[in-house]
Structure formats: structure tokens, C-alpha cells
Input
Amino acid sequence: MKNIIDKIKKMPMGHIPMGKILPKKMKDFYANTGDKPIYAGFKNKVDVHAGISGKMVLNTKGLWEKISCLPDTSERRALYVHIPFCLARCKFCSFYQGRSKEEDISKYVKYLIKELEMTAESKFAQSKPFNAVYFGGGTPTDLSVDEFDLILKTINTRFPLANDVEYTIEGRNYGFGDGKIEACLKNGVNRFSFGVQSFDTEIRQKMGRIEKKEDLVKRLEDITSKYDVTVSIDLIYGLPGQSQEKWLEDMTMAYELEGVDSVSVYNLKYLPGSPIKDLVKQGKLEEPATMREQADLFLFTKDFFNRANAKRLGLRHWAFSNRDRSIYNFIPKYDQTVLPVGCGAGGRVGNHKLMQRMEVEKYYQYLDEGRKPIKFAVEIKNDIGINGHFIGSLEEFLQIDFKMAAKKFNQPDLIEMYKPLLEQWEESGMITFDGQTMKLTPASEYHNVNIQQNMVEYFNWKKNGK
Ligand code: SF4
Output
């Protein structure tokens, strides 16, 4: 048993945020003082998304049947489809599951269709329309034209989708030819999310990305000029060899590329399982930006997009047009339904967070046995929804209206309860609080995951004593 739990602790969690369960004292929630707030931060900067803890369920036999016979009561919901293959491994990635080989992908697609069909049969899946469909990975853009056609048609005919569903394919534009794009668009896809990470050829090659800057830019220009589709790109700052000037060039390129609707910006994360740390240790890569340098780069980024009059779509997402609704990005943050399908997919169904089998062979085995391939689950007991509301509000609006939350979740003592914490955070420059609304400062925008995690853990500590 200990072995299993150790393995689970080391696994990348997909969409399953796992809060730490630790004994807490009041000061454990405090922000550090004695330096500029953005440098002082919290004891340990938490980089992976914040989340809600619960009871681990390791025996998942019969679980799907139990939870999927109930209707969905979530305000919004998404269908998440995972394609766990990539052409090559990016050096910063800890989510890599395997190399894309045509025969592997086509076998996988057969099983994926089987899982989609079995999942769609449930009362839970049919109980209301999905507001978003998201293909993540891995690299979904490595699917072939016929595979796209088959998977998308299966979804469109089996699942109830909202009339204005946001339908996203994530991946790279390398190898994502016109035939694939047209197969996606004719089947209802209306948004592409491309992981550019950096435009700089040298940095891209060091990070294991395939295309040179010129080819990448040309392909993005082709796609955005030819097709009527929302295009969002991801960039990373703090990469090895990426000076502030190079980062400025990346942001400028994203801004100037006609037809790119929005950009999501992430700091480089040293996640367990990503090769970058070892390569730096072996002297094969330059040191990436330190935490302090990353903090400076974050302020620089904010300033750049403010000057560019870009619209803030959330903590790390800026838009240059009004097309990107970014619906999927917020659904898991608010802890709303994410129905997972695919090997390594994670999500939330009713009061259970689910993590599906990550090993392809096990995934096939479960489906051969007629089982939804759930590896483990976390049962969230007595969830009144307030924790998801905190995280979602901070992610989307960078603030929390405590009076509104107190009313919505019937917690009349909410402001009183949080007052000592809010006072300390305000004194240390992490937030402002006017008696009703807590707003993030640039320091806590950077340390947002700590703020979110502490908000959630503080609520549990005060209400449940843990
Ligand atoms: S970052 Fe994306 S494309 Fe790169 S290896 Fe990881 S999952 Fe694959």
C-alpha cells in the first residue's frame, strides 16, 4: 500500500489538484516579510495549481457505475479528451507519456472511441450540455485527418453539447496541416491552443522543440489568415538562455502576429520528472532564471501587456481580440465538472476527482474488461463549493468578493473568520482589502498558487480543525 501511495505522490496530477494535509498554526498561512513582497513570498513557492483535499479511493471497481448514474449538478462542465503521445519530448515537460508512432496512435484511437461511447451512455454524461470540449495531451495535433474525423464525430453524435460550446484542440502547429485543420473545423472545433513556448530558434532547439522561428511564424500566419478560428498560444519565461531581451522579443512577436487572439504566459517550473534539472546539473543547459529573476520577469510581462492594451483574461492569460472566451481554462479552476476520457486524463465527476490509468497497456486492459479506466479517485466530502469559488475568482478576476461569497455559500462569519489572515497579507503587501473585496497585488499575482492554497486550507482548518 505504501508503495502505491508513494507512486501516486510522485505522479503528475493532470487535473487533480492535491492539497497538502498538514497540521497548521496561524503563522503557517502568513506571507513572509522583510523583503519586497514579490521576493519575500511565502515559505515555499507553490507552482502547481492549488486544490482541495479529500479521501483517497484506491479501489475503484464499481466507482464509475456509482457516480455516473447521478445527474450532473455543476454550473458548467467540460469534456476532457487526453491524447498521451508526442513527437518529441520537451525538456521542461513532466507530462510526457510516450512518443507518437502511427500504429500506437491508431490502436489508442480505437480504445478511445470505446471509452467515449461507454462514457456517453451514462446518465451523468447525458444530464446536461457540455460548455467546453478540450483535447489535451500530449500532442493531440499529431492525430491524423481520419482519426480527428472519427473522434470528433463520436463526440458530436454521442454527447450533448451546448450551442455555443467552446471546442479546443491543443498541440503544436508543426505537422498540423490544412487537412487536419479542416477536419477539425468541419466537426465543430472553434479554438486552437498552440504550445509555442518560445519563438527563439536557439532556445526552442535546446528545449527539444522542432520548428525554427521562421517556419513557426509562417505556419501561424498561414493558419490565422486562412481559417476563421480562435488561436491562443502559450509562452514560457525563465527558460535557460532566455534573457529579458529575448523574452521581450517573444512577447512582441505574440502581440504582433496578426490573428493570434490571446497568449497564456507561464513561468518555467522545475517539476519532478522533467529532464531540465538533470541537463542543467550535467552542464548541458545554462541555469534557468532564479525565483527572484522570474519574479522580475513576471512584473516585466505584466507591464508589457498593460502597455499593449491587452485584455486580461485571467491570472496568466492576455487577449488581443474579443474572440477568446477561455471557458475551458476556468472550469477546472472553479472545481466544476471535467469529465475525463483517455489514458492519463484527470477530472471531476460529482464529488469525486478522478485520475485515469496512465500506462497505455493498463488503460487497454480496463477497457477490454468493460471498465472505465480509473486509477484512483479522491472523494471530496461536504463540499459546499466555496473552495472552488475562491480559486476560480482569483484565477479569473484576481479578487474575491467576501460579502458575495458569504451570502452565496451561507457563511455569515466568513469575513470575521478570514480577517486575521487578510490583515497579515495586507500588511505584508500581498493583497488589498476594503472590508468587502480582497484584491491581489502584483506580488500575489506572482504567488497566486500560495494564496489560493492557503485560502482553501485556512477554510478547512477553521471549519474542520485540519
Ligand atoms: S510539453 Fe507538451 S508537447 Fe512537449 S513533451 Fe510535454 S506534453 Fe509533449
Q: What stands out?
A: The chain has a mean pLDDT of 91. Residues 14-53+384-466 form a domain with the Arc Repressor Mutant, subunit A fold (CATH 1.10.10). The first strand starts at residue 55 and ends at 57.
